[in-house]
Amino acid sequence: MFDLPLITRIISAVVGIILLGYVINTGGWVFYAAISFLNICALYELRSAFSKKNIHIRFFLNSALAVVLFYCASFKNFDFILTYLFAILLLMFEFLYNIIVSNENHLKDMVFSVFSFLYTSFLFMSIILVRNISLELKLTWWIFITTWACDTGAFFSGMIIGKTALAPAVSPNKTIEGSLGGILSSVAASVLYSVYFLPGINTLHAILFGICIGVVAQIGDLSASFIKRYCQIKDFSNIIPGHGGILDRLDSALFSFPVAYIFIKLLLQKGGLL
After folding, report:
1. Does the pLDDT value for residue 58 go beyond 90?
2. In a domain, 274, yes or no
3. Could you tell me the sign of the dihedral formed by the alpha carbons of 241, 139, 217, 115, in that order?
4. Is 0.90 surpassed by the pTM of this model?
């Protein structure tokens, strides 16, 4: 009578949104600790996934470097260019460390370790950077809501009118029609949110923002699908009942935040709209 998996997914989603709202709105060390925890979970998921292909990433080194990176990014007076430069320096350090302790037989481990740092820590850092901008709460929710609208719109559009496969080798169920529906949903959510909560942003910028998020969110989704197909797994983990792992739920947002941050800093703030 009751669809237990669906009920589980709904309950997990509601609890997750409540926890996310608390963390974002509280800020401070709670936000910093939560992002660090999510990043460590994501790194562990990648470690477990890649181990199935006999690839061993440096989980503890990546986790330690990420904590240092997030701590620096948490300072509001830490310029975003300096933050990215510091991230690149940490990346170079990891690359050098892997060269020193590895040999030619471990080249794949080294490459995947560096990739794992980029795919998780470098992207999670952008969430902290957005949180540090003026109007941080409204901007953070703008990105999340626009991303979720894209995911939801793509799912229902694909289910109702989807016919043409988008990337059958990576994710057979995704369609071009669903992708376009996701972008349109992202644009609609971006415009509506800006009208009510960010009146200083004009409609054109809100549309451009929605298009950008609609595209990169789906790239993030496809990237996660590509990794899972490569590792021959269905989900990254089962830490979230009914949803899978951290990367299964945040794959789109992880790609949305870096692009959104650059969009906000270079287009909106430089243009005097924020």
Report:
1. no
2. no
3. negative
4. no
